[in-house]
Design goal:
The complex is a heterodimer of chains A (165) and B (289).
Chain A lengths: L1 H13 L17 E7 L4 E4 L2 E3 L10 E6 L5 E6 L4 E3 L7 E12 L6 H4 L2 E3 L2 E6 L3 E13 L11 E2 L2 E6 L1
Chain B lengths: L1 H15 L4 E5 L9 E2 L13 E12 L6 E9 L5 E8 L8 E12 L3 E10 L2 E14 L14 H11 L11 H66 L23 H20 L6
Antiparallel strand pairs in B: 1-8, 2-7, 3-6, 3-8, 4-5, 4-7
Classes of the chains: A mainly beta (165), B alpha+beta (289).
């Protein structure tokens, strides 16, 4: 019995490990690149309104999507629903916004605008063609009910996303 | 030989020439219409200008259901067709969205670029057209021979070779060089003679040294023999020179006459031994044992 125990101990010490972790590494090259082409500027056509529309004295922000793989990504652009920084506001702000294709590198991309889907403040585009597409987003904010915005600096952010299909 | 010399000089000149490209872009060539000439591209009187890029943008105006092709292109000078052409097919697509495209061109000489245009096939129009060319040129190409990359360089070189009045210079015909060469030949001959004399002298010295060596070896042999002889004489002479003292050695023993008696004891001992010997011999034949 003593001997048997000794042998079993030796066998156990020579046995291989029960588990081994082998790493697997890899890189995924991005095929959808989002670049801010033009920073937006709020115009202040009236005390109660801030707008990026050029007719309102603003600058429309433009974001560019560069896609190297066709029919693989969705572009989602969300116009702001709140100021990221602003003076203290005591009343609600009403937001409106829209996003449109303004420039492409391929004639076929013009169909993006026709086929876009809008829900809430978000506009979704199906990027079916490889190339670059410029999206312009207009955004406007109304303060309260005909209330004037307090003086100060206002900042809002447009969220641009590239979602793999 | 003459041509080779000229070409070599030109090659050296060309490699030492300062060559630096300058780059630029045009304004909107389609600003005033949908056709344009290429004469205004880049600085005037610049030879060697090359187009290395074309960029255009426009917005099509059309109904979605209409067919429309938009061609942006340049005619090829001295040939049929176009040196650059890009076509956008807007058939069945909505208008109103600008399109922008850029093309990298392989440095094609400006001389090949003819009239540019935006041509439309089908129903629709184009607004806000913008066509821009990028180019490069060598500022040093004020003359064709300023740089090998300048246009007309090869023709200019050939023309220069034809018109060249470069005198052929034969260095072997130059008296200064021939004098120096002759003087060198004389010096070489003198050196050769001196070398031969030195060689003879050396050979004689070697012969004489051989004689000396044989004489020397002979002397050494003689000396060895002499030394051998000298070393033998001292060892032999003492014996040769030894002289025995002469004289007569007289008999000094005197025997007196008389009668010598027999030795009886001796006789008895001898007989006893004889008897014993005989007994011992006889014992081996004794059969009783």
């Amino acid at each position: 019995m003593k001997k048997l125990l000794l042998v079993s101990l030796i066998l156990a010490s020579n046995a291989p490990a029960f588990a081994e972790e082998t790493p697997i590494t890899g890189n995924v090259q991005t095929r959808c690149l989002i670049t801010t082409d033009t920073n937006g500027v709020f115009g202040n056509p009236s005390p109660t309104k801030l707008s990026t529309a050029s007719t309102d004295g603003g600058v429309v922000p433009v974001v560019r999507y560069d896609v190297t793989l066709a029919d693989a990504y969705l572009a989602k652009v969300t116009t702001p629903t709140a100021f990221s920084s602003s003076p203290a506001l005591s009343d609600s702000v009403s937001w409106t916004g829209s996003t449109a294709v303004t420039k492409t590198t391929d004639a076929g991309m013009s169909i993006y605008e026709t086929n876009k889907v809008t829900y809430g403040q978000t506009t979704q585009f199906d990027l079916t063609i490889a190339g670059s597409t410029w999206f312009s987003s207009e955004s406007a904010a109304l303060y309260g009910v005909n209330k004037s915005f307090p003086g100060g600096s206002y900042t809002a952010v447009i969220l641009a996303e590239c979602i793999a299909k | 030989m003459k041509k080779l010399a000229v070409v070599a000089l030109l090659a050296i000149y060309a490699t030492s020439a300062h060559s630096e490209y300058l780059y630029g872009i045009t304004g909107n060539m389609a600003a005033t219409g949908h056709t344009w000439g290429m004469n205004s591209v880049g600085p005037s009187n610049q030879r060697g200008m090359r187009i290395n890029g074309v960029y255009y943008q426009y917005t099509p105006i059309k109904n979605t259901e209409d067919d429309m092709l938009v061609h942006v292109r340049n005619k090829r000078v001295g040939g049929d067709g176009y040196i650059f052409s890009s076509t956008d097919d807007w058939s069945g697509l909505p208008g109103g969205i600008a399109i922008t495209k850029g093309f990298v061109i392989d440095n094609l000489p400006i001389e090949l670029w003819g009239e540019g245009s935006i041509d439309i096939e089908g129903t629709g129009s184009v607004v806000d057209a913008n066509v821009v060319y990028s180019y490069k040129y060598n500022e040093g190409c004020t003359t064709p021979m300023a740089d090998p990359s300048c246009p007309g360089y090869a023709d200019a070189v050939l023309a220069m070779m034809r018109d060249s009045t470069v005198e052929y210079y034969d260095p072997m015909g130059d008296s200064n060089i021939s004098d120096v060469l002759d003087e060198k030949v004389d010096l070489d001959e003198e050196d050769k003679k001196e070398n031969e004399e030195d060689e003879d002298r050396g050979r004689l010295e070697r012969i004489l040294s051989g004689v000396d060596e044989s004489v020397l070896s002979t002397n050494i042999l003689a000396q060895n023999l002499l030394m051998f002889a000298m070393t033998n004489n001292p060892s032999m002479n003492p014996y040769y020179d030894k002289k025995l003292v002469g004289g007569v050695y007289k008999e000094t023993v005197v025997l007196h006459g008389g009668e010598l008696p027999d030795n009886k004891k001796g006789a008895r001992a001898g007989l006893a031994q004889q008897i014993l010997h005989t007994q011992m011999i006889s014992m081996q034949y004794d059969k009783t044992e």
